[in-house]
Amino acid sequence: MASGREQWSSRSGFVLAAVGSAVGLGNMWRFSYLTAENGGAAFVILYLLVTLIVAVPVLLAEVVIGRGSQQSPIRALAHYGGRAWRPVGFVFVAAGVTILAYYGVIAGWTVRYAGMALFGGFDSGIADRFDDIAQGADAFGFHLLFMGVTIGIVAGGVTKGIERTAMVLMPVLFVIVSGLAVYAATLDGAAAGYAYYLSADFSQILSLEVLTEASGQAFFSLSLGMGCMLTFGSYLGRDTHLPRETALIAAADVGVAFVAGLVVFPLIFALGLSDKVGGSTVGALFITLPQAFAEMGPIGRGVGLLFFASLVVGALTSAISLLEVVVSTAIDGFGWERRRAALTAGAAITALGIPAAWSLGVLDVMDQVANNLFLLGGGLALSIFVGWRMEDPIGEAKVGAAGVTWFPMWRNLLRYVVPVVLAFVLYDAVPKTLSAVWGLFVGE
Ligand code: PHE
Asked: Could you report the per-residue pLDDT of 365-390, keeping only the tens digit for each?
């Protein structure tokens, strides 16, 4: 066992790094377009329920495995479950690689938009140019830039790279996003945005499809189902109160998503761009909002800069955590030095982003595969692992949290509720996703 394993330097360092992982494009880009697509507040309510009942138990499961084993995912699963579980760990790492490959491309767009706001401002024709901005050599260039920064930080180490970045950047993100929500409230027409966002169309909530979207979003947003939180947990000491930290991380993640909605919807409605949200897709945020900023004149440039800067920050701290999964696996598995691992893994992932940088269709399918197959499948595996396979998960969870009495309920959720919900959802998601992949290859 790696006795020289790195450790977070403080409790808040771990929490902020984990919140940094959770809060990202998922909270602002994905959350708002899925909410728009799936009936406003009805979707939000379902998402909150799934987060509480399905995702949070898995989050606690991941940090329990990570802290208990002090290992990266593949070894951690083998530690408690035997060698038969190693393939699941491999799938986790593959998920990290896939997600980061396209996530880096979208993050590249955010860098570019922040740069546009800074150096020239937005013009109203920007919406029509989205396809050019999002695809091609430029998109790859910004992806490369973003990945370079990510690699540099991960190479710096757990405390000096990952933790320090989160400690500095996450508070900045909180301040910007709340400030923007306050500003958005002052806009004429903001009320229509709130009405859309906060009033529920319950006719949509009961479909399996919406449950699938809500579950996928809950896992993506909390960085679950691929060993990311497990890896971060492996740098924790045994004195950590895991339930408390887990609750804090989940609350911060949900909170930022909710507040981001309070920014996005008023802005879109105040500027009369709501017709554009209905048919929202992957690009919604990058099409509608710059147009809103363009129409707002000089102030739009400032608001746009802040908005996209917060997206860059969120994306960066999430990308760091994705890369860390692969890097820690290479360090533990091959005995590589951290710098070598960061550079090698980072370069390979950057290259894998090439297809996503050249085609929105590929990017969209990668997002579906990552969520619907990898993360939800990973969540199912983790719930079975901790619910049924691991010898004494409650004993592990109790370390540092002796006073907590609801651990048996947690384990029962992992045994009977989480796998059943996820099995249902996968039943819906798997065929859909496979046919999307198929469509990509045969050209629709
Ligand atoms: N949670 C991140 C976000 O919301 C994305 C992510 C998924 C990060 C999986 C790590 C692992 O943007």
From this structure: 999 999 889 999 999 999 999 999 99
Distance 21 CA to ligand 1 centre (A): 6
> In angstroms, what is the C-alpha Rg of the chain?
21
> Would you say how long the chain is, in residues?
444
CA-22 nearest atom, ligand 1: 1
Residue 176 CA from chain centroid, whole number: 19
Using the predicted structure, report yes or no on whether residue 268 has a pLDDT greater than 90: no
What DSSP state is assigned to residue 336?
Answer: -
The region that residue 195 occupies, defined by phi over 0 for left and psi between -120 and 50 for alpha, beta otherwise, is alpha
**3-state SS string for 90-146:** HHHHHHHHHHHHHHHHHHHHHHHHHHHHHHCCCCHHHHHHHHHHHCCHHHHHHHHHH
Paired residues of 200 in beta bridges: 40
Q: Quote the CA–CA distance of 368 and 364 in Å, as a whole number.
A: 6
Q: Which atom of ligand 1 is nearest to the CA of 319?
A: 8
Cα 95 to chain centroid, rounded: 12
3-state secondary structure of 283: coil
Rounded Cα gap, residues 303 and 283, in angstroms = 19
Report yes or no: 225 and 376 within 8 Å, Cβ to Cβ.
yes
Specify the DSSP class assigned to residue 128.
G
Pairwise CA distance, residues 14 & 9, whole Å:
8
Q: Which tens digit of pLDDT belongs to each residue from 47-97?
A: 999 999 999 999 999 999 999 999 999 999 999 999 999 999 999 999 999
Alpha carbons 353 and 355: distance in angstroms, whole number: 6
Fold of 11-442: Hydantoin permease (1.10.4160)
Q: Structural domain boundaries of the chain? A: 11-442
What's the half-sphere exposure (Cβ side, CA atoms, 13 Å) at 44? 22
Atom of ligand 1 nearest to the CA of 375: 9
Find the residues whose C-beta lies inside 6 A of ligand 1.
Answer: 21-22, 24-27, 99, 220-221, 223, 226, 228, 318, 321-322
**Do 86 and 78 contact (CB within 8 A), yes or no?**
yes
Indicate the top mutation candidate among 103, 170, 217 to test ligand 1's pocket, ranked by most ligand atoms within 8 A of CB: 103
- Our mutation pick for probing the ligand 1 site, out of 258, 282, 318, counting the most ligand atoms within 8 A of Cβ, is 318
Two tokens, residue 411: 């384990």
More confident residue, 207 or 89: 89
Q: Quick check: 301 and 123 in contact, CB under 8 A?
A: no
Distances (CA, A) of 207 to 37, 42, 211: 13, 11, 7
